[in-house]
Every structure is written in structure tokens, then in C-alpha cells.
Amino acid sequence: MPPPNKNTPTVRRILKEAKEMSQPDKDIFAAPIEDNLFEWHFIIRGPPSSAYEEGYYHGRINLPSNYPLAPPSFRFLQDSGRFDVNREICLSISNFHAEEWLPAWGIRTALVALRSFMATEANGAVGSIDGVPDETKREIARKSKEFKCSTCSGQRNDELLCATTEGGSTKEPQLEASIVYKSVGQQSGDKSTDKSKITAAKQGEGGAKGTGSAVVSTQQIQHTSRGICRHKLMLIISVLVAIWAVISLL
Predict the structure, then answer these.
(1) 11 vs 93, residue with greater confidence
(2) Where are the domains of the chain?
(3) pTM of the model
(4) Catalytic option among 90, 149, 162, 229
(5) In CATH, what number does 9-169+180-189 get?
């Protein structure tokens, strides 16, 4: 594959995120593969206080050609007891629900959300598995660190993740699992339920230095715009974030 044109907004954004993801993190590893900037591999540690806590889970991210204007897709490449192997996962931050994606979100934001989502019930969501006993999940978690991906130089999951964590920071943009979870009813087009809210986003994905939060606080806007109805409020938030993301790509 020929080298990508670094002058395009998409490639500049991906390269910036790759640099940010190279910073040590004890819970998350992600990087583009050697010959394709649009395909990434990731490893996430299982969420704490769950049956997945001891696990190291390896997966793949595919970025669209117009990223970050369109969302990525996610799949796991090994058994986790929570998701199907090598099947795309239905999330609000994935290509299953492109209408809910915000360009200010990024790979780290998505992986933090995916990690939180892992601890929720599957409830028949696409790409998820129901009914796996906790003890089975724990056994899978204990063995998961030994998984080796041929694309990632055949290194074990724990070797890849631990090699990047010495002296690392544990700071992460926080998203609640409710942001990414989609029930079966929502997947079938049920628009009557309220959309989940972003409770915090302390680091802007693809943002400029000193810009502050990437996502405007819903509570702050409600404080100054009490008379605006819910739908108009969400529209204003989306417009502001989209404008901010486009400016950051210039």
C-alpha cells in the first residue's frame, strides 16, 4: 500500500491520535498496523470489579476513509465471553449508529467507552454473547493474556500492553457505558427512549492545546438555556462540537 498523503485532514487526524495513543496507559493499547494507517489493533484490560478484570482482550478497529466525520468499526479477535469473535459490535460510537457519532470523539474515547460497555449485560445486542457464567468469563480472562496476534509480531497481549505502561498515566476521558449501549429495542428503530448523555469528556479527541473540554457540558447549557426544549438542546451541542472538530482539523 502506498504511503498516505499526510496533507489530508483525515490522515493528519489519524497521525495525531496515533501519537497520543503512544503515551503509556496501563489499561489501553492501540496502534495502526504497519502497512495500513486505517486499520488499528487494540488491547484493553477488563473493567475492574467484573468477571473480566484479569483479562487482556485483543481486537481490531477499522477507520473509514472520511474519519473522523464517520465512525470506526470494532471487533474482537479472541474469545472474551462477552463478544463474538471477529464480528462487528453494535455501539452508539460505531458504524452501526453513524448518526450518533461526533467527530470530537476519537479512538481513545471509544476504547474507554467499549471497556465500560463490556461490564454491562449483553441483552441480545449485535456482536454480544448472552448467558456465559461468570466463572467461565474469569477462566477466559486468566488465559486471555497469552493470546498472540500474528499481525502484532506474534507478541502476547500482556507483553504488548505492559511494554507501553512503565511510568504511564492513568488519566482517561470518561464516558459512561450508557453512552455506547444499544438495547434490542433501540436497534430495531425505537426512537422513543431518551438518548444517553455524556457525563464528562475531560480531553478533546483531536483538539488543540488549551481548548478545554471536547464536549460541551449538557448541564452547563441547561443552566443558561432553561427554556430550550430537549431536542433543540441536543442539536446545539452537536453543532458546537462539530464546528470545534472541523476547526481543529484545519
Answers:
(1) 11
(2) 9-169+180-189
(3) 0.65
(4) 90
(5) 3.10.110.10
